[in-house]
Amino acid sequence: MPKDKELTRLIPRIYKWNYENLALFIWVKAQMSLIRTITLDQAIQGYMKFTGITFEDWDLDSMKSTYTRLQNEFYDCMKNESAKENK
């Protein structure tokens, strides 16, 4: 039986995130990976412009904290899965 890949074990946890948070996370990660000089604020503002979200809908500080929380969850999960594989 083939061994599960690390990323496929993360999928059930990622499904628990709501689609707005997930879209923000993916957008910002992609922008920061493609454009190395872009800041978190610039990436979030690009997401807002692309999706039409206004500051009344979701303010910048909340978006930054949401992105940071999801990033920490993602890396924690990756770290835990990596530790399990090394045992």
Describe this structure in words.
The protein is an all-alpha fold. The chain is elongated and about 45 Å long. The protein has helices at 6-15, 19-34, 40-51, 60-86. Helix 1 packs antiparallel against helix 4 and helix 2 crosses helix 4. The protein has one domain (18-86).
Quick overview:
This protein is mainly alpha-helical and 87 residues long.
Order of helices and strands: HHHH
Distance between the ends: 19 Å
Average pLDDT works out at 82
Number of domains: 1
Unreliable stretches (pLDDT < 50, length at least 5) are none
Tell me the number of strands.
0
Helix percentage: over 70%
Number of helices: 4
Q: What summary fits the major beta sheet?
A: none
**Shape verdict:** elongated
* CA radius of gyration: 15 Å
| Secondary-structure-derived class | mainly alpha
- Strand residue content: under 5%
Sequence-ordered SSE layout with sheet pairings:
Layout: H1 6-15, H2 19-34, H3 40-51, H4 60-86
Helix pairs in contact: 1-4, 2-3, 2-4
